[in-house]
Amino acid sequence: MISPNLIILYVKDPAESASFYRNLLNREPAVEAPNFVAFPLDGGFTLGLWRRSKVEPQPSAIGNRGEVAFMLPGENAVARQYDDWRQRGLPIAQELTELDFGPTFVVLDPDGHRLRVCEPDK
Q1: SS (H, E, C) 98-118
Q2: Residue 60 confidence (pLDDT)
């Protein structure tokens, strides 16, 4: 059985996106090339940032068709993260709100990718 261990976001400028994610994740990338940057994440997962113009085969569409989610356990953890990212000036697409699955909010990266913060399933 194989398990996914890499998520790739298509970005306009990997260096600009790397700067954003370096600050957001508070870690350095393991790979930093002109057209691709990779950040190792906890649990053996990696976040890849690939220059959109160099993706092969070229994607048929670009847009908000998914999200990268950060599940934060603990009471008020989502609200604390919201306050932190808001103070850093990250663009907020959805203010802190309560949905069926609990508290959540969404920020955008430099390419408009949606980054959702929420609580883990209980």
Answers
A1: EECCEEEEEEECCCCCEEEEE
A2: 80
How far is 109 from 121, CA to CA, in rounded Å? Answer: 25
In the block, residue with structure tokens 């989502």: 78
Q: What is the mean pLDDT of each run of 10 residues along the chain (122 residues)?
A: 89 97 97 97 95 90 81 95 97 96 95 94 72
Helices (H), the chain: 14-25, 77-87
Say how far residue 53 (Cα) sits from the centre of its chain: 20
**Cβ neighbours of residue 59 closer than 8 Å, sequence gap 6 or more:** 10, 52
Domains of the chain: 1-62 (3.30.720.120), 63-121 (3.10.180.10)
**Per-residue model confidence (pLDDT) at position 45:** 94
Q: How far apart are CA 42 and CA 65, in angstroms?
A: 24
Q: What is the pLDDT of residue 15?
A: 97
